[in-house]
Amino acid sequence: MAKRTKSALKNARKSAKKRIANRAKKLRLKKAIKELRATKDPKAFQELYPKVQAIIDKTAKSGLIHKNKAARLKSRLAALRAKITEKK
Fold first, then answer.
1. CB-based contacts of 53: which residues, under 8 Å, 6+ apart?
2. H or E stretch including 30?
3. What is the per-residue pLDDT across 4-32, written as a single tens digit (0 to 9) for each?
4. Please, are residues 59 and 26 in contact by the beta-carbon 8 Å criterion?
């Protein structure tokens, strides 16, 4: 760290905390999507789907992912949902 002013030190601490929190949120999103994609049972998929959508919306709202990326993820999961549920 180059500057040693009080504000620079405080910003470094804040940045470190936010980095940890953001990584945890992003990891939570990735794990949720991975779990949903691995699900082959239509009933289990239907249960998980709204929860994953909520996680995607929350991460986009907080600016962690872009709103277009959120829309793309949700669209692809909706297509997967249609494919899995039609197999009944």
1. 74, 77
2. helix 6-38
3. 999 999 999 999 999 999 999 999 999 99
4. yes
What's the distance, CA 62 to chain centroid? 10
Q: Could you tell me the pLDDT band of residue 87, with boundaries at 50, 70 and 90?
A: low
Q: Which residue, 36, 39, 29, 16, is CA-closest to 65?
A: 29
Of 88, 85, 83, which is closest to residue 47 (Cα–Cα)? 85
**Which ranges of 39-66 would DSSP assign to H, the alpha helix?**
42-61
Contact 79, 86 (CB under 8 A): no
Element at 68 (helix H, strand E): helix 67-86
For residue 74, how far is the Cα from the chain centroid? 11
Question: What pLDDT is stored for residue 2 in this prediction?
Answer: 72
**65 phi and psi angles, rounded to 5 deg:** -125, 155
pTM: 0.86
